[in-house]
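Field reference: sequence -> structure
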Amino acid sequence: MDKIYLDHNATTPVAPEVLHIVTSVLRDQMGNPSSVHSMGRAARVLVDEAREQVASLIGASPSEIVFTSGGTEANNLALLGVALGAGKGQIVTSQVEHPSVLNPCRQLESLGFVVDRLRVDELGRIDLQVLENCLTPSTLLVSLQHANSETGVLQDIEKIGEIARKKGVLFHTDAVQSVGKIPLRVQDVPVDMLSISAHKLNGAKGVGALYLKKGSSDLFSPLSGGSQEKKRRGGTENVAGIAGFGKACELAQKHLASYEYLSSLRDHFYQLVSNQISGVEVFGDLENRLPNTLNLGFDGVEGDTLLIGLDMAGVAVSTGSACSSGSGSPSPVLTAMGIPYDKINSSIRFSFGWSNTTAEIEKAAKILAETVSLNRMGTFADMSNKKLMKSL
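Structure field:
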């Protein structure tokens, strides 16, 4: 059975060019970038070249790129680095952030820091006036995502950055879901820190970066170790992953010239689905969103059962953020948007990627319509439950 992968917000397939570089570095470049001999210097060149490629994608200087193990570490480095360096103060974030932002905030609260979590409206957007009113002389950092992983909703990080800068507050944005899908240049946005993850843009898992604007902050490093990454992040660099990350960013920069392709896939899929299935609802802002993300609710259908049915038919999707799957709780993001539980329970996230084709989208829409129909009749629920029990 040919698989149709529509879960690119969870992770993306590794691009062939990236895989080639990663495997060749693992095979041929064994040097430690901190070593002064020729093999070490060769490894250092690979890291430096990748730093330039990552920086180029977002319009930064290579010296402003700090390599990490992924988006989670980048977010932690920004939040804990600023807060622990200051010792006390306020952090402002939102209720719909990724767990790698919300959980460090909980840790900081246990240490005596004040954390304000802004509400969002029914479209998933924060109120900019509420944000401005929330900032005080004790505010250390505003950390608000660029794009939400579940709904694709975009926050206005340009205006958020302007508010933070006017108040003299550092601004960090988790841009893991947006970098590589839509154009984003740090010289156009007043942002001090920005998180990126390689595996969200066709790189390998286990590597990411934090953009740290020159002169914006001397971060406390919560990861103590050697002097790598200008003493901001100790530990021997993941040379193969970093080299692949650089190539992934180079490829992403080329894709961005035609990023409307993703929105054409999304919109075509939604048109097919809405024509074939009744009782379909889109969750999130229809104007301010990623071009590849569609979060849909289906009346009278349980999302988990629908997901299993689609998976059995060869279509991979998600009921929400991969980092929160299996929690047994309704989506915190959709809950924060005020969506009723029964609708949250029916939601499925479809996230498209550069490798998807129109033919795949059309086939997936047909399979979805058939699966929803079976589900509503109760036929598929019995079948899937029996199959699930056999697998346990």
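Note: The domain at 4-12+257-391 is CATH 3.90.1150.10 (Aspartate Aminotransferase, domain 1).
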